[in-house]
């Protein structure tokens, strides 16, 4: 019912009751003591109804004002979204596009109305689909802004490398993913005479920072270079168990193109800075780039062989001893007591590399400490004692 009509009818009812009271007082057969009490109650009820109607009217007016304000704000933010100086998409957790602004339409070379409802994977190469879905699954469970690199394929146009910043936004109804898309700056292949060493190669390239425990994006088209920190390289068995295949320290490279394992993951063990990117196409176009990268690849191969050697030891104490020696060489720094491991691996990580349980590693480390082979500093970093 219309609020204004309801108020008018309430007022009319109140008037009818007043008229009825005046008429009834003239009727001789109604007891004089009953009539005043009955009409008094009716009048009170009618008055309460009238006041309720007036309050409802006031609330309705306020609600209409709020709706008008919300619509104004919605229109304002819609205009900001539409005319943002970057391509912007909103998708659901499966990557189905729900909103797209003008620049997103231009970037993907498709009309906005047609774009809505399409899977974003329509514009991503088939070989990147598995990586894409695993990544957005992780993003949906976090509130952090993540940046991923993909090669996008617009409709009836040339593909290009893109940087996509994405954030998960959840409300009571659903979780949405907000995507900000930028074309990556294309790196021009440099002449062989200009690249004398690896420092020349990575100079002036963008640096990405990853917090401890964060998974680092892996794309088949790119190779990453660790500038600072330590990266754990892992594969996963059919049961979902993690298998550590390498540790990328500062100065080392890694990437999914360097392995044939189907499920391969890079995780920051400590806060990490990585230089992005070295494109495989760039390696092919730069004659002496292979010479520059060869020592880095050799470094990774040597570490892999060391991991295999450790796994081949029959006794677990021997595996742990060899692992500590390897870590001493790769991430150790001299201290008065011996060699301190710069980065702290968890007992679970050490057990993973040694092919045993966390409980066993905890027990063995305690034994090594009692035997004077190792000790721990105030930050729980392992110190390998001289002549241990």
From TrEMBL:
Annotated keywords: Coiled coil, DNA-binding, Transcription, Transcription regulation
HTH crp-type domain residues: 314-388
Coiled-coil boundaries: 46-80
Superkingdom field: Bacteria
Residue ranges of domain PAS in the record: 73-143
Molecular function GO terms recorded: DNA binding; DNA-binding transcription factor activity
UniProt protein name: Putative Crp/Fnr family transcriptional regulator
Species for this entry: Sphaerospermopsis reniformis
Source taxonomy: Bacteria, Bacillati, Cyanobacteriota, Cyanophyceae, Nostocales
